[in-house]
Amino acid sequence: MSIPATSGSSFPSTPVSVSPSGSSNHSSGAYAPRIVIAGAGPAAQALVAKLDQAQFGGSITVLSNRDDAPDSLLELAVLPQVSVRFGQPATHIDPEARRVITEGGLDVGYDQLVIATGSAPMQTPIEGAERSLGYSTIDDAAAIGEAVKEATRILGRRPLGILVGTGAAAGQAEAVLRARGVRPVRTTARPTAVVPSLAGSPLPASGIRFEDGSTMLGDLVVLAEDRLPHDSLAESAGLETAPEGGIMIGHDFRTAVPGIWAIGDAAAFDGVRLGLLVAADSAAGACAAHLMGVPSRELPAAA
Ligand SMILES: Cc1cc2nc3c(=O)[nH]c(=O)nc-3n(C[C@H](O)[C@H](O)[C@H](O)COP(=O)(O)OP(=O)(O)OC[C@H]3O[C@@H](n4cnc5c(N)ncnc54)[C@H](O)[C@@H]3O)c2cc1C
What we know:
22 strands, alpha/beta, binds flavin-adenine dinucleotide, disordered C terminus, 5-stranded parallel sheet, about 300 residues, FAD/NAD(P)-binding domain
């Protein structure tokens, strides 16, 4: 999927060039830039994989804010040109010096920086939220399926589902529930509490309560509130963000600041968050092609 070109865009579209610092790796005169990726989720991983498939000759440093890593990331971490730094959230960008600084004080120089810091559910406390099911990662879809199965077994009928949320996440959660035979009652009003079930019931929740004291009863509560982009890195680099969040990019995934790109849920095109427009994998493939300075169609398909 390609993103439409921005008319009158202020985003530069010049080819990737050697760092002004002149500190790129050069061997036999070949251009071997240093790419740093802030974030290590699906978008970052897809970008590393695409660059590897395209035989990118420079170095790739991935900054992950987490200490753990899924197998998919560990497989990429062993590639010779890839270095993954765990537990190193990127906190500051110096776009003039082309350096990224992490919370732990790591200072990494880059020729091209790709921000792939993703998104997170809105952090708003709802009393007793632990009695509900969340919908904030791809694994949650499986957890909802299991919960429906278990509730059906306990009740001897399909559970009555309550779905809280607006936007794309709630739409996806509804599709997940319906695929498992549950037609949820959907509310866009935020409850203040998830009500526990009566003593003796093996189900954790019996409904939700709103601010005015009114309740909505059900056997299974799913909170599927929209996600917010992790775009706090934008400020230090002087990057523009969309009103609804997300780092503003042009049609080629560049930001308005030379040498800085954004992909995945952290990016926004024309005010719309990229995660809603184009899958992280597609964005990574197109971005890799631009980074390599070749058209997308010349990159091999993802494995
Ligand atoms: C339930 C659910 C189901 C979905 N199903 C699909 C699907 O079927 N197909 C599909 O295409 N999409 C699906 N999506 C959307 C998809 O999961 C996201 O678009 C995708 O995860 C975005 O990847 P990302 O790497 O941009 O962001 P994220 O997955 O959010 O990853 C970003 C990573 O960066 C890390 N990070 C954050 N800040 C920093 C920092 N400052 N420094 C370093 N690291 C940082 C985070 O901890 C995280 O590990 C689904 C989403 C949900 C919630």
